[in-house]
Specification:
Largest sheet: 6 strands, antiparallel
Oligomer: single chain
Shape: globular
Number of strands: 18
Structural class: alpha+beta
Distance between the termini: 46 Å
Radius of gyration: 19 Å
Order of helices and strands: EEEEHEEEEHEEHEEHEEEEEEHHH
């Protein structure tokens, strides 16, 4: 990836890409430019793509960074190269085409168009909404709580999932909370949502002063929301290793180990920027590899 010059033509996997606005500062607090974000995605692609490949992708687009206008885009961004694959997806609004990220070149092409956050469903385009192959629980801290409390909740949820024969993998969201994934044998979205809701209810029954399953803001103060609804077929979750458009400096949805979850004493302990994530993967590999490889898929109880 280029290090300077505001516009350059590069070749990625045999495709020529005209990269533009490379000197644009996207995150004033850290000084990260578009060129740096593009470099991150080009280097992290081998780790990110297993969690996005084959899935209809939505993006959070923000061409000028988090301080500018941003929006969720399901349709391919204008200017998307013809060689980037697309699949038809049925939504409430009707049939639409969505991008499928199958290569480093496709990922870099989308980021170049200001599509900085990558979001995917828990099913592939081939399997469709009746073939969810992973479960996700989104732990979101309400006012008065933080990531440390989410980690304590996650440890207990891990035990409950394990008792049901499911293996949990933690990913810090790159914002405030924590995501738990579990590979499952393909099941309809309704079944995945039903199980996730029941599991969240069990956790709330154990710890009513700590956990909530309602989206109502008035009920969330001092508690962690277990958002089970992310398993609905129409919903998406930010992909592991995606950059987050957090104010001032870029967060990353970073896979972490259970030892790190257990040892978290401060939210800063599990806050990682792009360069840190690249270093972690280079040194330790991908702690989420079991999820991407489909290992340990178990039926929903």
């Amino acid at each position: 990836m280029p290090a300077s010059s505001d516009r350059q033509v590069v070749e990625v996997e045999g495709h020529r890409l005209a990269l533009s606005h490379l000197d644009r500062v996207l995150f004033p607090g850290s000084g990260h430019t578009k060129a740096q974000v593009l470099r991150y995605y080009a280097r992290i692609a081998p780790a990110l793509l297993p969690y996005a490949r084959g899935r209809p992708t939505s993006f959070v687009r923000a061409p000028e960074g988090p301080a500018g206008q941003s929006w969720i885009a399901k349709n391919p961004p204008p200017g998307s190269p013809h060689w980037v694959p697309r699949v038809p997806v049925e939504h409430r609004e009707g049939l639409t085409e969505q991008i499928v990220l199958d290569s480093t070149a496709a990922l870099v092409a989308m980021v170049n168009l200001g599509a900085y956050e990558v979001h995917v469903p828990q099913w592939t385009a081939e399997a469709g909404p009746d073939g969810h192959d992973r479960l996700v629980l989104d732990l979101d801290p309400g006012p008065g709580t933080d990531l440390v409390v989410c980690c304590r909740v996650a440890q207990r949820l891990r035990q409950l999932l394990d008792a049901d024969g499911l293996t949990a993998y933690p990913v810090v969201s790159g914002s405030k909370g924590l995501h738990l994934y579990a590979p499952i044998r393909p099941a309809p979205g309704r079944a995945a949502s039903r199980y996730a809701k029941e599991l969240a209810g069990r956790m709330m029954g154990e710890h009513p002063g700590l956990v909530v399953v309602s989206m109502a803001r008035a009920e969330r103060r001092g508690k962690v929301l277990i958002d089970w609804s992310q398993n609905a077929s129409a919903k998406t979750t930010v992909a592991p290793y995606s950059v987050r458009l957090t104010p001032d400096r870029p967060g990353v949805a970073a896979p972490v180990t259970w030892d790190e979850v257990a040892g978290c004493q401060d939210p800063a302990d599990l806050a990682f920027g792009p360069e840190e994530v690249l270093g972690r993967v280079a040194e330790h590999g991908d702690p989420l590899v079991g999820l991407g490889g489909g290992q340990g898929r178990a039926p929903l109880p």
